[in-house]
Q: What sequence folds into this?
């Protein structure tokens, strides 16, 4: 499989026809337990928390798409990040991108730090700041690139070199680009994380998360977390994500085309300021985007003058839906300060550069002219 090109892998990796019936789709194995073949012997599965054939297929497919050693699927993206940090011990130090999904900050500050793990938020787009933050007890550098919602990039290869020199591992939240547009393990990172809820599922009809490790030690560690802590993805959700990834490359091509067209339109609109989209040559990290990404994706954010203007925009959109989340076939718009960053204090939000007029778009796969017309009429209503 490894020799096949990406579009072929998306359809076939991990998804061989069912050996018993020839069914071309991986069956949904709705069984909590499996008949054993003797004492201490089985056909490869004994209990679904430890392993399930539908989940195995998804985990192999995702490991192949990220060029990793192993995949481990969890109930949500947050459950995957919880599994990632389950290896940490009191006294460990973690460096985390400052401009990261607020749910990650909530987990780190309100739960993980209570175990005696010190989390330090660093602007990981600044390599000197990452270098300066490294300590002898730094175990993990967790980055999100592009970041949410400001689309700030972190140089994965450079951060990996710094972290490895200090004996730390690097994990990358690759949710915003999907494995079709960015391959962190190839750039030197150790672990990739996705909220499969987004582009991998692609249809906004389920929740899930995955960790992709690059070594046998990761496999052992994440299997233990799955078995000991639970939180594994259900077979039905695995089935939906398996179905979703078959069209991932195709969907991503349309997301990308629409994302570029929408960004181009917004970049010229007089009511729009501080548009953040790494595919525009005016983005300060355009060159890094070209170097480490295979495309620019369909996530972007911009500012209107005030919260009131943002509210008028959200009330006026017709095709775009005023909803949190991203990566589905339908286009979404959301008010960052009250959705993804609603749990962050106003002061911190301001320090991060997320003002009350900031809106985030997840551009879907509808007709791009219709999407632009919708944005145009909503901006007129502002
Ligand atoms: C970048 C990123 N990481 C992680 C998550 C958490 O994923 P989930 O909602 O599946 O728990 C999200 C959710 O929005 C996200 O945007």
A:
């Amino acid at each position: 499989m490894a020799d096949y090109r990406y579009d072929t892998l998306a359809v076939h990796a991990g998804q061989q026809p069912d050996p018993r019936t020839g069914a071309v789709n991986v069956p949904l194995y709705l069984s909590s337990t499996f008949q054993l073949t003797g004492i201490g012997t089985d056909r490869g599965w004994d209990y679904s928390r430890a392993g399930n054939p539908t989940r195995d297929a998804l985990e192999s497919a995702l490991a192949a798409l990220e060029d990793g050693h192993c995949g481990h699927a969890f109930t949500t993206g947050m459950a995957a990040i919880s599994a990632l940090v389950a290896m940490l011990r009191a006294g460990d130090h973690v460096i985390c991108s400052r401009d990261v999904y607020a749910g990650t900050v909530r987990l780190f500050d309100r739960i993980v730090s209570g175990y005696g793990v010190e989390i330090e938020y660093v602007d990981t787009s600044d390599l000197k700041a990452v270098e300066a933050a490294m300590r002898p007890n730094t175990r993990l550098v967790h980055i999100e690139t592009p970041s949410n919602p400001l689309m700030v990039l972190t140089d994965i290869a450079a951060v990996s070199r710094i972290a490895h020199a200090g004996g730390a591992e690097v994990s990358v939240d690759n949710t915003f680009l999907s494995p079709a547009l960015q391959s962190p393990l190839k750039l030197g990172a150790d672990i990739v994380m996705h909220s499969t809820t987004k582009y991998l599922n692609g249809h906004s009809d389920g929740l899930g998360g995955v960790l992709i490790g690059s070594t046998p030690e990761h496999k052992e560690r994440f299997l233990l977390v799955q078995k000991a802590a639970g939180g594994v993805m259900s077979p039905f959700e695995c089935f939906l994500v398996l179905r979703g990834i078959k069209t991932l490359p195709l969907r991503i091509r349309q997301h990308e085309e629409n994302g570029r067209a929408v960004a181009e339109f917004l970049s010229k609109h007089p009511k729009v300021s501080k548009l953040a989209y790494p595919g525009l040559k005016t983005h300060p990290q355009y060159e890094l985007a070209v170097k480490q990404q295979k495309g620019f994706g369909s996530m972007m954010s911009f500012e209107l003058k005030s919260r009131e203007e943002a509210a008028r925009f959200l009330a006026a959109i017709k095709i775009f839906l005023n909803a949190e989340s991203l990566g589905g076939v339908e286009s979404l718009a959301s008010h960052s300060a009250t959705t993804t960053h609603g749990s962050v204090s106003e002061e911190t939000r301001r320090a991060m550069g997320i003002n009350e007029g900031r809106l985030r778009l997840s551009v879907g796969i509808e007709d791009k002219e219709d999407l632009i017309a919708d944005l145009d009429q909503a901006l007129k209503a502002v």
